[in-house]
Amino acid sequence: MSDEPRPKSHDSPGATLKAFQRRGEVIKPAELIEVRGGEKITLAARRIYNQLLSNAFGPEMAAEGQEYRIPFAELRGNHTSNDRVTEAILSLMQTVVRVRMSDGSTRNVHLLGPTDVEKFGPGIATMLTYELHPKLLPILRDSQIFARLEMQILHGFGTKYGMALYEMIAKRISLKHVFYNDFETEELRDYLGVPDGKLGPFAALRRKAIEPAVAEVNALAPFSCSVVVIENKGRKVTKLRLNWWMKTVEERKAQWQAQQEKQRDLFDPGLAELDLFESS
């Protein structure tokens, strides 16, 4: 993947942890977006991990031994059982991903550190206490580029491929005069989280992963995108181009109304005027 210019607004020391995280938003370091080795992470686990990052976000996020607490009710969403949340937490604790550091080196790191589950009286667990893995802390401390993710949008995705593509574009949407990025086919496959040995032929990858991801991003995000083939070697597709562009205010208003009907319990009416309809 070619090097990308950094947005000036993200280019000061410690910029990621010093940023202001708005209500209903996740500020996610760029290094945690395009990772390899995360193909076993489910859609639910991806969404929950973003919630954990949002809950932990702040100047002390890179402090070793720092503990964070979040109610299970916030992680369950519309589900009444904690089983899905528990499975996601264990998966995040066990998953090792390959992260590209800002100096070009690669680090293998667990996504989540130790956790504790609290119960107040008999019955269902009520509170999760967690730490971020110590090897993750330098990444958080030194990150200079981040994506702003909308929690309401994250809740709308039905595939992990769509969520991964949304994060990839959100990382780049603030770049000035940059509207596309080229990827090796295998690279994009990894970043989307396609499992090893699955969707081998490009036709299957396009039909089962790329096209559904593009459709979801175009339906949910304040921007639109496309993925096109730009290089073949013989009959093998070797390089793809990801294009993106902002929707108009009118398009975003129509989109907001359509999604609000589907996810009314997740939508805060005040956020529409505050965030989604601002002109870029």
UniProtKB/TrEMBL annotation:
One Gene Ontology term of the molecular function aspect: DNA-directed DNA polymerase activity
Lineage, top-rank taxon, reads: Bacteria
In its UniProt entry, what is this protein called? Initiator Replication protein
Query: What is a single Pfam family found in this protein's UniProt entry?
Result: Rep3_N
Question: Which SUPFAM superfamilies does the record cross-reference, listed alphabetically?
Answer: Winged helix' DNA-binding domain (SSF46785)
Q: Which GO terms describe its biological process?
A: DNA replication initiation
Tell me the classification of the organism that encodes this protein: Bacteria, Pseudomonadati, Pseudomonadota, Alphaproteobacteria, Rhodobacterales
Q: Which organism is it from?
A: Paracoccus tibetensis
Using the record's annotation, list all stretches that form the Initiator Rep protein WH1 domain. Answer: 26-169
Record-stated family: Belongs to the initiator RepB protein family.
